[in-house]
């Protein structure tokens, strides 16, 4: 939803007049579509049918890539916001898009951490951490 806000807010401005927003639009739309595809794969439990694909590693790589590219998109979007714009509504929408790009970047960063932990198997639940082997 937050990624959708980023590209919807930018698409509602005159982004085509500024080359920097083309990159932000590409990153926002590409990763929004890919996230929706991964969501559908997990909702339909298609990841259980393809045992060959290491899904936890795929998600870790995807989230890390999304985080890195969203950092560049956030910096680009924030640097391109001009408070002296002749269209005040463009400024407000671009500033909001910068904020939501930062929130999406943090969300992908957190998702990268959790997917990395799932891939490495660093987590355990309370039941497995209490079991000791006395044999």
From TrEMBL:
<keyword id="KW-1133">Transmembrane helix</keyword>
<keyword id="KW-1003">Cell membrane</keyword>
<keyword id="KW-0472">Membrane</keyword>
<feature type="domain" description="MARVEL">
    <location>
        <begin position="1"/>
        <end position="120"/>
    </location>
</feature>
<dbReference type="GO" id="GO:0019911">
    <property type="term" value="F:structural constituent of myelin sheath"/>
</dbReference>
<dbReference type="GO" id="GO:0043209">
    <property type="term" value="C:myelin sheath"/>
</dbReference>
<feature type="transmembrane region" description="Helical">
    <location>
        <begin position="56"/>
        <end position="75"/>
    </location>
</feature>
<dbReference type="InterPro" id="IPR013295">
    <property type="entry name" value="MAL"/>
</dbReference>
<feature type="transmembrane region" description="Helical">
    <location>
        <begin position="20"/>
        <end position="44"/>
    </location>
</feature>
<keyword id="KW-0812">Transmembrane</keyword>
<comment type="similarity">
    <text>Belongs to the MAL family.</text>
</comment>
<protein>
    <recommendedName>
        <fullName>Plasmolipin</fullName>
    </recommendedName>
</protein>
<dbReference type="InterPro" id="IPR050578">
    <property type="entry name" value="MARVEL-CKLF_proteins"/>
</dbReference>
<feature type="transmembrane region" description="Helical">
    <location>
        <begin position="95"/>
        <end position="119"/>
    </location>
</feature>
<dbReference type="InterPro" id="IPR008253">
    <property type="entry name" value="Marvel"/>
</dbReference>
<dbReference type="Pfam" id="PF01284">
    <property type="entry name" value="MARVEL"/>
</dbReference>
<dbReference type="GO" id="GO:0042552">
    <property type="term" value="P:myelination"/>
</dbReference>
<comment type="subunit">
    <text>Forms oligomers.</text>
</comment>
<dbReference type="GO" id="GO:0016324">
    <property type="term" value="C:apical plasma membrane"/>
</dbReference>
